[in-house]
Specification:
Elements: E1 2-3, H1 17-24, H2 36-48, H3 55-63, H4 72-95, E2 105-106, E3 112-113, H5 115-127, H6 129-136, H7 139-142, H8 146-151, H9 172-197
Antiparallel strand pairs: 1-2, 2-3
Length: 229
């Protein structure tokens, strides 16, 4: 398969995806490193998730289990690009679905394949599975993951989402719809966690001083002779 990049091969925030792709496939990264589509899905899952995950924790996953310092001098440019891409993705999620541009594979017949992208996103969930539970445990909110699960495959290439006995699997039209829905679902998931972060601070009402109490302005006068007059 050949990779397909949106537009001119530049992420929404300006990261050169063609250059990043070359770095990921170069000696600057280990052979087990994620490729661009999987990396894009992984970083989207991190950016849309419930908690901030530091590079020291997510970089080893990108490398395929090897530590981030396998070759500090050569890996510096790719690490910088990965962090910049994460920032771009987060900014896109904040703006809305139109600013979310997933990087998918393209098959020989020109069809988009989100298998690697979805695998990357699900790996991001695995990093904080317990923190994701508020969304995973609610059927209505978990539905935002349905398009991704529909596109996911196991190691043998079989659909990850089980099909009930006697039922037909998803149609080509359903797969196409799932691809189209990924940006909207990613933004919805991002919004779900941001809303949970919002907390209304309790309003503390101070009791008004009695008329014969010292005025709170510090004048030394009674309240009724000063600010309460």
């Amino acid at each position: 398969m050949d990779k397909t990049l949106e537009g001119d091969g530049t992420a929404a925030g300006g990261v050169d995806l063609d250059a990043l792709e070359e770095l990921l496939e170069s000696d600057a990264t280990p052979e087990t490193c994620m490729w661009l589509s999987e990396l894009d899905g992984f970083l989207t899952g991190i950016a849309a998730g419930p908690e901030r995950i530091p590079p020291a924790e997510f970089l080893p996953v990108i490398w395929g289990g090897e530590g981030p310092g396998f070759d500090g001098e050569n890996s510096a440019p790719v690490v910088k690009s990965i962090v910049a891409l994460l920032a771009d993705i987060a900014a896109g999620l904040e703006k809305g679905p139109e600013a979310v541009l997933p990087v998918f594979w393209e098959s020989e017949d020109g069809k988009e394949d989100a298998t690697d992208w979805v695998e990357g996103f699900l790996q991001a969930i695995d990093l904080r599975e317990e923190a994701w539970m508020p969304l995973l445990e609610r059927k209505r909110d978990k539905a935002m993951l349905t398009p991704m699960l529909l596109l996911a495959r196991d190691e043998e290439g079989n659909p990850l989402m089980p099909v009930e006995e006697g039922e037909e699997g998803p149609s080509e039209e359903q797969f196409a719809d799932a691809l189209e829905m990924i940006p909207e679902c990613a933004v919805g998931i991002y919004g779900f966690w941001r809303l949970r972060e919002m907390r209304v601070s309790p309003i503390v009402r101070e009791m008004a001083p009695g008329r014969n109490d010292p005025c709170s302005c510090g004048s030394g006068k009674k309240y009724k002779k000063c600010c309460g007059g």
